[in-house]
């Protein structure tokens, strides 16, 4: 195990992006609101009115080079005069204003005697009025500067209909793009650096336990109707044409290792547990039992998760008084009356509950669970026990001690690696023997398409098997 190694799993990143797309959309919405607020509370539009004048020497032709040169020099002078405070004062008095509430700009066109005069104000009407006032009062000032100058209006001002100042409109798309990019990048960074197991390679680099095998992702939504209604179907490897061959073979490979452990040290009772909920332990326990039964082994699958039983849902079982494991443990069903349920015509027998039991902790305290495990050990080839998660029920530790081996289910990208390693230590600390870990819901590639077939909805067999043989 190599700690601290960071790996990038593209499926994990893509999944996080899809799951957190609302974060990106929320950031974009906040960005739009921010731009709107800034645009209407901070940004103030400005309007520009422009006129063009030409400066010539009084009483002379503009065709000679000397006259043109003098006119150009005069234009340079007048461009400065138009911007003087005197011009603003005269124009304000002409309009009856206390002050000139605009900004004058006068620019000489290169190599000409033309002057562009602009007035910028906070309204198109005001800009137009101020510029007209300037054009009315400039003769009084121009005669004081150059008596022999003539200023002719070449282009009269017009009222602007759109703001001349650039607001936030031009940067809105760029700003929203940056917000989306930053929020998406943040999700990717959190995904990459999240301390969870995301792949088989990640498991070997960061987890101290032995890896028994990997279970590939299998879609539980079989049809578009199931996807819309969020209806999930059990992923049992027996009698289900929807299940892929790769999924079935992954269990066969793990079962081969379980058989090897039995040959080596006689292990027959295997506990399947996990640290957290919804890591797929019940499905994995059921399929391990089914895979063993398909090989001709006599197998009992026990559901020891008394508070939240799940095995009965996977096999489609309903309540039966003499086949309820909880009633048997509580002494409400005698040993002679209790019957294990046989699944179809296989060698798999189910010891299950169809409802939760609040006092399931008494099954361990009374010794009923341990005694039953001892009896089953002598009667069958394998006993597979599905328990509650380690973090949920402390009584799991006692079941682990009563079993031969413990299998820890780890779902990709759910539990932190430090927590997984702590769970492995817990199994050994309570006196259990860890057979290894199963990495569930792996994604070796990014599937483009999947093919499905018809399922088998047939129920379990009505055949029964007594607990005493």
Describe the structure.
- The chain has 469 residues and is an alpha/beta fold.
- It has 3 domains: 10-43 and 167-191, no CATH class; 47-155, EIF_2_alpha (Alpha-Beta Plaits), CATH 3.30.70.1130; 197-466, 3-Layer(aba) Sandwich (Rossmann fold).
- It has 16 helices and 13 strands.
- Strands 5-12-11-6-10-7-9-8-13 form a 9-stranded mixed β-sheet, sandwiched between helices. Strands 2-3-1-4 form a 4-stranded antiparallel β-sheet.
- Strand 8 and strand 9 form a beta hairpin.
- The longest helix has 25 residues, at 169-193.
- It is rod-shaped and about 130 Å long.
- The model is unreliable at 61-65 and 446-463 (pLDDT under 50).
In short, what is this structure?
The protein has 469 residues and is an alpha/beta fold. It has helices at 10-19, 21-41, 65-81, 85-95, 124-145, 169-193, 200-206, 224-229, 245-265, 281-294, 311-315, 325-329, 361-365, 368-379, 396-402, 417-429; strands at residues 47-57, 103-108, 114-121, 149-155, 211-216, 269-274, 299-303, 339-342, 348-351, 382-386, 405-411, 434-442, 464-466. It folds into three domains: 10-43 and 167-191, no CATH class; 47-155, 2-Layer Sandwich (Alpha-Beta Plaits); 197-466, P-loop containing nucleotide triphosphate hydrolases (Rossmann fold), CATH 3.40.50.300.
């Amino acid at each position: 195990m190599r700690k601290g190694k960071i790996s990038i799993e593209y499926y994990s990143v893509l999944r996080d992006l899809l799951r957190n797309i609302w974060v990106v959309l929320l950031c974009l919405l906040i960005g739009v609101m921010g731009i709107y607020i800034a645009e209407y509370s901070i940004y103030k539009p400005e309007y520009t009115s422009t006129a063009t004048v030409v400066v010539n020497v009084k009483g002379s032709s503009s065709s000679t080079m000397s006259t043109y040169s003098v006119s150009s020099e005069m234009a340079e002078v007048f461009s400065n005069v138009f911007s003087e405070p005197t011009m603003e004062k005269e124009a304000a008095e002409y309009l009856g204003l206390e002050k000139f509430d605009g900004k004058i700009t006068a620019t000489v066109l290169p190599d000409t005697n033309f002057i562009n005069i602009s007035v910028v104000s906070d309204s198109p009407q005001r800009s137009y009025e101020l510029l007209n006032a300037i054009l009315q009062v400039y003769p009084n000032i121009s005669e004081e500067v150059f008596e022999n100058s003539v200023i002719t209006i070449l282009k009269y001002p017009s009222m602007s209909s759109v703001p001349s100042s650039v607001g936030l409109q031009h940067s809105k798309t760029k700003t929203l793009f940056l917000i989306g990019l930053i929020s998406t990048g943040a999700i990717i960074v959190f995904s990459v650096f999240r301390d969870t197991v995301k792949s088989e390679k990640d498991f070997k680099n960061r987890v101290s336990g032995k890896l028994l095998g990997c279970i590939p992702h299998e879609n539980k939504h079989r049809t578009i109707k199931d996807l819309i209604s969020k209806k999930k179907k059990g992923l049992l490897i027996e009698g289900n044409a929807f299940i892929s061959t790769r999924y079935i073979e992954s269990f066969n490979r793990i079962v081969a290792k379980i058989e090897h452990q039995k040959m080596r040290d006689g292990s027959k009772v295997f506990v399947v547990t996990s640290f957290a909920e919804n890591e797929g332990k019940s499905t994995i326990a059921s399929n391990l039992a089914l895979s063993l039964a398909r090989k001709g082994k006599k197998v009992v699958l026990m559901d020891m998760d008394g508070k939240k039983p799940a095995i009965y849902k996977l096999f489609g079982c309903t309540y039966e008084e003499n086949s309820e494991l909880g009633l048997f443990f509580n002494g409400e069903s005698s040993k002679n009356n209790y019957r294990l349920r046989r699944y179809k015509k296989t060698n798999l027998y189910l010891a299950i509950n169809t409802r939760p039991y609040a006092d399931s902790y008494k099954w361990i305290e009374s010794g009923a669970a341990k005694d039953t495990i001892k009896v089953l050990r002598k009667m069958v080839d394998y006993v597979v026990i599905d328990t509650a998660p380690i973090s949920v029920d402390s009584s799991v530790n006692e079941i682990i001690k009563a079993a031969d081996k413990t299998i820890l289910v780890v779902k990709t990208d759910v539990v932190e690696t430090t927590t997984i390693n702590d769970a492995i230590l817990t199994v050994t600390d309570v006196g259990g023997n860890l057979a290894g870990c199963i990495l569930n819901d792996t994604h070796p590639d990014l599937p483009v398409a999947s093919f499905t077939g018809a399922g088998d909805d047939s129920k379990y067999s009505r055949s029964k098997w007594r607990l005493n043989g």
